[in-house]
Amino acid sequence: MGCYETLLTRKTFYTMDSINANQPEDNIENLEGNEAWKKLKQLAEKADTCFFCSNIKTGLPFSTRPMSPQKIDDNGDMWFLSANDSHKNEEIAADPFVQLLFQGSSYSGFLNVYGIAEISEDKSKIDELWDPVLKVWFTEGKSDPRISIIKVTPTQGHYWDNKHGNAIAFVKQIAGAIMGTTIDDSIEGDLKA
């Protein structure tokens, strides 16, 4: 973790800890194993795209690009299609540790996932993941020789969401503001294998 990222994370947690201390209800729920990966899948599928960060352990500035997973399985594994001559594939070959950042809406569905990426060119998996809109990037269709698969296996993560949906969360925030107290519908926690 970089110095700036560490400071930002600490500042965020200190701020959230002071808010959490004023919560009348529990809003921390750490999840492990299957429950963690169900939550990961639920939140990641709400997001239209994610920020895919590579080069995170090399000591170089990490690279970030928007991507959309083609599939998220019940184990939390995320599958992307990528050009085999892309910078991201080159970076993953040098450093397989990646970070994925998802945002489901302006108010909820935030997800930060660390994982290990592996690249393959398994034709049967490409067939399974193929969507005709991908022809924009792979002009020869699913038989394009440039297609590769990136599988990200999550190792850990953290999520921020709300318990009862954005409408209830909004009502609770308004009520809290009127009453001058912390009434928040938020829930957050660590995700671990």
UniProtKB/TrEMBL annotation:
Superkingdom of the source species: Bacteria
Start and end residues of each General stress protein FMN-binding split barrel domain: 36-184
Protein name per the record: Pyridoxamine 5'-phosphate oxidase family protein
Species this chain originates from: Mucilaginibacter defluvii
Pfam families (UniProt xref): Pyrid_ox_like
SUPFAM superfamilies: FMN-binding split barrel
Coiled-coil intervals, chain numbering: none
